[in-house]
Amino acid sequence: MGYIQEARENHVKKKVEEALRSKMKQKALKECNYYSAKYAECAAGRTISVVWQCRKHAKELNECLHQYTNDSVLEDMKKNYMLEQESKSLFPKETEMTG
Hints:
Layout: H1 3-9, H2 14-31, H3 33-43, H4 50-53, H5 55-68, H6 71-90, H7 94-98
Subcellular location: Mitochondrion
InterPro entries: Cyt_c_biogenesis_Cmc1-like
Family: Belongs to the CMC family.
């Protein structure tokens, strides 16, 4: 599949992409809650020293978040969104057809 064709197939409106990014970030924070709590626990009561004292926790949190917030994940979400939209247009709900 050519780059241009793939780009067209995965193109979504800006607002939809923003919503998908937001959903992606929410999922990442949920999935990485353990690491987030560990980092917050380490950072509590610290100011500048948080940089070196909590470096390990920050790295673990960032690695976890990156698993759920990268271009590949976003592209998959766009593809799923497009498939859902296509499915809705091909197979409208019965209530829409009879209502």
